[in-house]
Amino acid sequence: MSGKLSRTVLRRGKGSNLFSLVEYTTKAFKKKLDKAGMTQSMSRVSRCIDNGPVEAFWGMLKSEMYYLKKFNSYNELEQAIIDYIDYYNNGRYQKRLNCMTPIEFRNYLKDIVA
């Protein structure tokens, strides 16, 4: 990784209320996101296909990294997140992926298709 996050994704969580749902779907809000160079991640109501994997990933990140350390600055936290994402993709073996890392499993699948 380059040491910097490549893009920012804003995701609306399940704790959001109806007002925030309306607010997050306005054209004005979308315009602000575009201006800030951010991407919005929000599935349609009752179609939360991205919710499960995202919730699982952030749960693992928090329990395996965030809760175990005190961060003294935003930059320290940002670097820890970047390092964890690199570890998750390249060093964290997962039983559900045939005991491979996500990158190894992706390459394995590409080899099967090729």
Automatic annotation (TrEMBL):
InterPro entries: Integrase_cat-core, RNaseH-like_sf, RNaseH_sf, Transposase_IS3/IS150/IS904
Swiss-Prot/TrEMBL GO biological process terms: DNA integration
Gene Ontology MF term list: nucleic acid binding
Domain Integrase catalytic: 1-110
Coiled coil: none
PROSITE patterns associated with the record: INTEGRASE (PS50994)
Domain of life: Bacteria
Record protein name field: IS3 family transposase
Gene source species: Alkalibaculum sporogenes
